[in-house]
């Protein structure tokens, strides 16, 4: 049961897509199941990140045939961080969700996350009983452990592709390439509270992962140092007092 304060919540679910033609129809079915139960007004925004397969054609078909679905298509492949930023920039709801289209996490688990949005600026999943290869599991564990040690954010599974963010906080996130790995820490940097919840995880049923051992390890390690540098120089302030006068009109004081 949702807290009554969530009655004012509206949600945009961002779905970055890069060459996922084998997943999109089944993803739409799974997302439809969530939309049928969604306790808040919800829309889905696909971000086509320069796909070279038939993903864009399938996205057009889904959006033209189903209420609640929209899309933007980037001019070329920019990467996940840019796709998420583009989605955030185009969202106009109070909250922004994020999920991958490969269905390794379930849209239905947004129901669990929505129960916790009141009092938190981000709610993020923790992939329980991960159905990944040994290499993916161990590389993710190393990267997560190194990140927690270096920045002390306390986030168990920062890469979990199931999140809901307060849109006001999300739109203030300082973006850089690789920032998708630090979204919870970037919310915390603004003073936001992050809630973590166990969610389901499944094997990829079609397509292929866009990440391999190199970019699962080297990218996060390198970006951690960039985040530490940025955090030390992050500008954060509050207004203690303010007085605003009327503007001068036509030169008359």
Automatic annotation (TrEMBL):
<keyword id="KW-0808">Transferase</keyword>
<protein>
    <submittedName>
        <fullName>Glycosyltransferase involved in cell wall bisynthesis</fullName>
    </submittedName>
</protein>
<dbReference type="GO" id="GO:0005886">
    <property type="term" value="C:plasma membrane"/>
</dbReference>
<feature type="domain" description="Glycosyltransferase 2-like">
    <location>
        <begin position="12"/>
        <end position="142"/>
    </location>
</feature>
<dbReference type="InterPro" id="IPR029044">
    <property type="entry name" value="Nucleotide-diphossugar_trans"/>
</dbReference>
<keyword id="KW-0328">Glycosyltransferase</keyword>
<keyword id="KW-1003">Cell membrane</keyword>
<keyword id="KW-0472">Membrane</keyword>
<dbReference type="InterPro" id="IPR050256">
    <property type="entry name" value="Glycosyltransferase_2"/>
</dbReference>
<keyword id="KW-1133">Transmembrane helix</keyword>
<dbReference type="Pfam" id="PF00535">
    <property type="entry name" value="Glycos_transf_2"/>
</dbReference>
<keyword id="KW-0448">Lipopolysaccharide biosynthesis</keyword>
<dbReference type="GO" id="GO:0099621">
    <property type="term" value="F:undecaprenyl-phosphate 4-deoxy-4-formamido-L-arabinose transferase activity"/>
</dbReference>
<dbReference type="GO" id="GO:0009103">
    <property type="term" value="P:lipopolysaccharide biosynthetic process"/>
</dbReference>
<dbReference type="InterPro" id="IPR001173">
    <property type="entry name" value="Glyco_trans_2-like"/>
</dbReference>
<keyword id="KW-0812">Transmembrane</keyword>
């Amino acid at each position: 049961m949702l807290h009554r304060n969530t009655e004012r919540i509206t949600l945009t679910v961002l779905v970055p897509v890069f060459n996922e033609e084998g997943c999109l129809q089944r993803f739409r079915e799974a997302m439809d199941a969530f939309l049928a139960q969604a306790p808040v007004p919800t829309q889905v925004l696909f971000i086509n990140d320069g796909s070279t397969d038939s993903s864009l054609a399938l996205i057009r078909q889904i959006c033209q045939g189903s209420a609640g679905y929209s899309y933007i298509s980037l001019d070329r492949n920019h990467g996940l961080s840019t796709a998420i930023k583009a989605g955030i920039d185009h969202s106009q709801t109070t909250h922004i969700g994020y999920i991958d289209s490969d269905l390794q996490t379930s849209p239905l688990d947004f129901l669990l996350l929505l129960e916790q949005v009141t009092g938190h600026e981000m709610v993020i999943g923790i992939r329980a009983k991960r159905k990944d290869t040994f290499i993916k599991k161990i590389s993710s564990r190393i990267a997560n452990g190194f990140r927690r040690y270096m920045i002390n954010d306390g986030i168990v599974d920062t890469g979990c592709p199931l999140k809901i963010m307060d849109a006001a906080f999300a739109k203030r996130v300082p973006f850089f390439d690789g920032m998708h790995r630090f979204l919870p820490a970037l919310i915390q940097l603004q003073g936001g509270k992050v809630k973590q919840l166990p969610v389901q995880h499944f094997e990829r049923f079609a397509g292929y992962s866009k990440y391999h051992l190199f970019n699962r390890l080297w990218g996060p390690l390198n970006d951690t140092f960039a985040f530490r540098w940025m955090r030390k120089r992050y500008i954060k302030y509050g207004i203690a007092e303010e007085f605003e006068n009327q503007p001068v009109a036509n030169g008359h004081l």
